[in-house]
TrEMBL record:
Belongs to the bacterial solute-binding protein 1 family. PROSITE patterns: PROKAR_LIPOPROTEIN. Residues 28-64 are annotated as: Disordered. Keywords: Signal, Transport. This is ABC transporter substrate-binding protein.
């Protein structure tokens, strides 16, 4: 939904919007401070976080199957996360059928201050049974403490491999206290490799959706010759100004270097001053720094709010044609605009064929802190498409599971998006959300802003961003 999800979510909420790329970028109850009561049946956190040997799945079935037989009726499972307001209602609707069939009461608590509060609860031995992390980097830091239950022997790994793109499983594997663990499973995602465009006018103009980066650049030049700037770009976002630009760099990195290098970059092992990262900035600059390609010219990029950037696409005739943002951006489109008719998206094309068709995503990863049979059943449920079916049907999210039917989506646009995620050569999470806050939500944002505003040149900007790692 957004870059440092907390900052972005606050911005979206302040505009009376509820989501999330949600990016990836992107959530009621009030403030959620530490609760006075321990997690239901959870006991002391030191005991409950120890992973026990899972029961064998015989004729009685897995924990989820046993739950469906009513074996855990009357039990409670506590859950804490960032979903509030409309998102909380959608989440609670998505688990309602499960609760009725199993008799398990999933007691969900949402908070706008989730990121700050979850650490307090975990450190205080009062962790919820399950927590929803919109930033996997935050989960990774907690996983190192040994307080997260390793799901490797909790969930059927073969089933997971069938139901998720391997990249999702890789992104859920993190460093534990004594080695690698499966720290969480993915339940909701949004897609950040999408270029939005005014479909009706685009078709009428005779333009064709580009399949390669070269074709996209040729079309960008053609649109300029026809009298319009192709791109609508805005990175203004209050205190979070600069985050939309990081989506561009992340997407280009995935298209110009290996997934392994992307991972090293996110971890700080591949510096911003490296040739790989500089190359990504240079490719982006061929669009951003060309005044004929950007609506309002280069200087407008810093002063245009990201939510306002797409507006020129909806004028008649359009004054701009392309906007690269996650699927949450449709919340900023005119209410009268109809998906698949007035607007659509195309996949940001590959640059180097050897890196296939990578997709940048954001989303929610669920971690388990207390190991009881009913909690295992709920976690297993969350690995199924059924757990997010009603939310998918209501629009605004993409299910990462393969068993989520494409028929559930209420628009051709969403169905194509879900298929894109399922078929992706490589999936990688929003990089700046994985970096330490001083980098991902600090020097990276500022460096992007200073560079495009002309305050510093590219080499200076990259050195400035890298300093965020040195001071973390």
């Amino acid at each position: 939904m957004t870059k440092a999800k907390k900052a972005k979510t606050s911005l979206l909420l302040s505009l009376c919007l509820s989501f999330t790329m949600m990016l990836s970028a992107c959530g009621g109850s009030g403030d959620a401070g530490p609760t006075k009561e321990p997690a239901a049946s959870g006991g002391d956190n030191k005991e409950t976080t120890e992973t026990t040997t899972p029961p064998e799945t015989g004729k009685d079935g897995s924990p989820l199957e046993l739950a469906m037989q009513g074996k855990y009726k009357g039990t409670k499972v506590t859950m804490f996360g960032p979903f509030v307001d409309v998102d909380q209602k959608k989440f609670e609707e998505s688990i309602k059928d499960f609760e009725e069939k199993t008799g398990i009461d999933i007691q969900y608590e949402g908070s706008k201050e989730f990121e700050a509060t979850i650490n307090v609860r975990v450190d205080g031995g009062n962790a919820p049974d399950i927590a929803d992390f919109p930033q996997p980097g935050l989960l990774a830091s907690i996983a190192k403490t040994g307080k997260v239950v390793d799901l490797t022997n909790i969930l059927d790994q073969e089933k997971l491999k069938k139901n998720y793109n391997q990249s999702w499983l890789d992104m859920g594997t993190m460093d534990g206290k004594d080695g690698k663990i499966m720290a969480g499973i993915w339940n909701r995602s949004n897609v950040k490799s999408l270029v939005w465009y005014p479909k009706k006018q685009f078709d009428e103009a005779g333009y064709k959706v580009p399949e390669t980066w070269d074709e996209m650049m040729a079309l960008t030049e053609q649109i300029a010759k026809d009298g319009d700037p192709a791109w609508a770009i805005g990175i203004e976002s209050g205190a979070a100004t600069g985050w939309p630009g990081t989506d561009w760099i992340e997407n280009i990195m995935l298209r110009t270097t290996s997934p392994e290098n992307y991972d090293k970059w996110v971890k700080g092992e591949l510096p911003f001053t490296s040739p790989e990262v500089k190359n990504a900035f240079e490719i982006m600059s061929k669009i951003w720094l060309n005044k004929d390609y950007v609506y309002g010219g280069t200087k407008s990029i810093v002063t245009t709010a990201f939510g306002d950037a797409p507006k020129p696409m909806f004028e008649n005739p359009p004054k701009a044609w392309f906007n690269l943002t996650g699927n949450f951006i449709t919340s900023f489109f005119p209410e009268t605009a109809k998906v698949d008719q007035d607007y659509d998206w195309f996949y940001l094309p590959p640059i180097d064929e050897k890196y296939g068709k990578p997709v940048l995503v954001a989303g929610d990863i669920y971690a388990m802190f207390n190991d009881r049979p009913e909690v295992r059943a709920v976690m297993e449920f969350f690995t199924t498409g059924e757990s997010i079916k009603t939310w998918v049907q209501s629009g605004g999210v993409i299910a990462p599971m393969n068993d989520a039917s494409l028929d559930w989506y209420n628009s051709e646009s969403d169905r194509r998006m879900a298929k894109l995620v399922q078929d992706a050569t490589t999936l990688r999470f929003d990089g700046s959300d994985l970096m330490p806050g001083k980098v991902g939500a600090g020097s990276f944002w500022k460096g992007m802003t200073d560079y495009v505003s002309g305050t510093v040149n590219l080499d200076e900007a990259l050195k400035q961003i890298q300093k965020g790692w040195d001071s973390k």
